[in-house]
Amino acid sequence: MSLRVAAALVGLALHLVVVPFVFRESRYLLGVLTTASVLSLISLGVWLTFAIGRINIGQAAFALVGGYTTAILSVKLGVSFWLCLPASGLAAALVGAVIGWPILRLKGVYFAMITLTLSEAARLAALNGGTITQGATGILNIPLPGEVTVAGVVLVPAFRALNVHLAFYYLAAILLVLGLFTVTRIASCRLGWIFRSLRQDEALAASIGVNVAKYRVLAFALGCFFAGIAGAFFTVSQQSIYPSSFGVPDSVYFMLYCFLGGLSYVSGPVVGAFVLFLGFELLHGLREYQMLTYAAIMITVMLWLPNGLLSLRLPARPDMKADTA
Amino acid sequence: MIVMEVRDLTKRFGGLVAVDHVTFQANEGEVLSIIGPNGAGKSTLFKLITSFLPRTAGRVIFQGEDITGLSAHLVARKGVVRTFQETTIFKEMSALENVVIAHHLRGRATSVGLFLNTRVARQDEAAFRDSADEILDYLGLSRVKQEEARHLPHGHLRALGIAIAMACDPKMLLLDEPFSGMNPEETDRMVEMVRGIRDRGVTILLVEHDMRAVMRLSDRIIVLNFGRKIADGTPREIQNDEAVIEAYIGREDDELGI
Amino acid sequence: MNYALIALGITLIFAIMGVLNFAHGQMYVLGGFVTYYVYGVFGLNYFVALAASAVTVACVGLAFERFLFRRVLRITTREESTMLLAAGTALLLDSLGLALFGEKQRGVAPVVAGVYEIFGAFVPASRALIFVLAFGLVGALLLFIQYTRPGRALRAIAQDKETAALQGVDINRYSALGFALGAALAGLAGGLLVTVFAVNAGAGTPISIKAFIMIMIGGAGVVSGAILGAFVLGFSEALGYFFIPGSTTYLMILVGLIVFLIFRPQGIMGKPWG
Fold first, then answer.
1. Which of A263, B241, C121, C214 could be stapled to C7 by a disulfide with Cβ–Cβ 3.0 to 4.6 Å?
2. Chain C contact for A136, CB < 8 A?
């Protein structure tokens, strides 16, 4: 059994078994870890756009789309959360595909700026969405996930009846594992190589028959899907959503998590999100200097480890790279 | 047998006409070279044919089918593949990986199939590797196939560019200045390789400045000047063509300021 | 007019260093705070306060360029690194502002009282003053870039860094100058507008966003584009708010911008890229 697989299994055991068992009574800790998991998921989505050579500062917009989809479906139409979840992902992916098609022609700073605009535009759209999005008041009292029964057998009990924090922790953990598995799979199969070819030279890729437009949108939409799912999650865990739930600063953070974890590694965004978010929470005691110290540390890491935290431990395995030079 | 027909292909950039109603035919299995002084529009012509630039007017007909205006990747799919003037390769992949990924068009698995690593996907991958090994071997790159592409010396890079194009199993190969920056030895080797590719049944369209190589290799030559075709014939005919001589020498005079 | 100052500042930095100054809005806020303290709290002359703002923010810019950006530009292989560093600096300044100045809004009384009547519209004297000052600053900047030696050096670098270096232009020094100047412009804008609008620590991000919008409209890295973008935005805002109150205006502006960029990604005056 290779070191990598062993490490993955240990991580899995920790994440799914040890931590929840040990900390099952600690609301705060579970909450923090849950949030970190979901932030990792969103960042994985951003990683996918980095993988095709684009800087995406628009992820918040799609998280918002996902969140509102779930909110509207469950509050106004009484749809079960378990259906809302994939629906949110699909909604976000769809919007991503439609918007992505034209804007993915842009690159570099220009793409970054237009995605930044998207983040802000999404917030304004939610603010001015009239009766659908309820504007600034947001949508409140979103019900907790209900139970899932198949043929009379309860697969997932209603969240109300459980240690809610633990339940959400597990949901987040499972989503993260699935997400990480998906992205790892993509990166190591030929799709990953196609994406890599797009990142390194789009013209060359076209000349060998790669349908550049199609694959670009595919990567982007997939990233948006992750954001949509995450948005749905936050909406039910907070049981509310507002236009300001996901905004420009969040988009910037997701990007930073990817970057600081290490863009060459699939697990980069996960490591980045966990380390940074947990780090932020740990600095809680510093009160008003919390943000400042956090920012200072972030910049320091950028200066000394430009290839991300993971570059300390691991040389990038060729089939996992997402880097440009 | 005519494999490609270019009719009145024109490209205008604002007021500048880069390619002016160029018309010619390429016969199956021949090496057709396009030459001309700098700025004559040769590379632009390539980009027009392979849809890397939108045309202003004209048609391109390949194997009886009008491929004008098809998007670049579809043109490749039809069997018309180009190489690039600059050393264009996937810099961070090894030479082998470069050629393997270039087999993209031969893939039978769908995207979902790739994700799930179905048997078809795995068969594809294995076939691509074998084919890549063969191509790299043919172009003399076997020894460096694990090297990261950007570390390769110039001559190998040009060869790799051709290897990538060959992986697409082209019926027609457009080589954009493959001999540039090569010393006589490398040029000779490249000439042999191009001949070999032609012998495999691939029609070759060649843009080049190196006259020795062009004269040795070509079955026919087309000469462009200021975007217009001024001559079309065998190497011998071209060498003696007045318009051609004038074009080249006229240019020289300008450059010397005479 | 004030918008033009902001747009020019960020354009300058982008043109010289190729960095999108995410922290631009925060520098504006910093400038506002400095003016607040110097003029509003310590009671010194307004122009002194403005100068103080400019100098303070310029120093910050200098520090950023010298210690952060220069190093990252040297050792990084990715083009995203500088952008992300810029985002990091924005965060830094944002939190710094929060820590130093707290969350309260600070405003400063208008420098001059009274109202003028111009062409039938009532214009508060303070706004008129700001307009004049901003106009003057923009003009001075344009003259500086056009006619002075450092100005020409900056332009040379903006056009072609390598060639400029070959011609003997000290890239490091002028990069620092460019960054400092761009930052100073933001600070001045902040100092000017703090007399009209209050600033608070969190106002940086929306202003950065406006700055981005302006250069997206006009074309990043081009001076004329910056001014054009500033005018288009100012105009659209005024027009929009007149007809459609509330934030819907901005939504329409943004959507319009996105559509515009799809067709003309380099903005009105921008150089075609890639």
1. C214
2. no
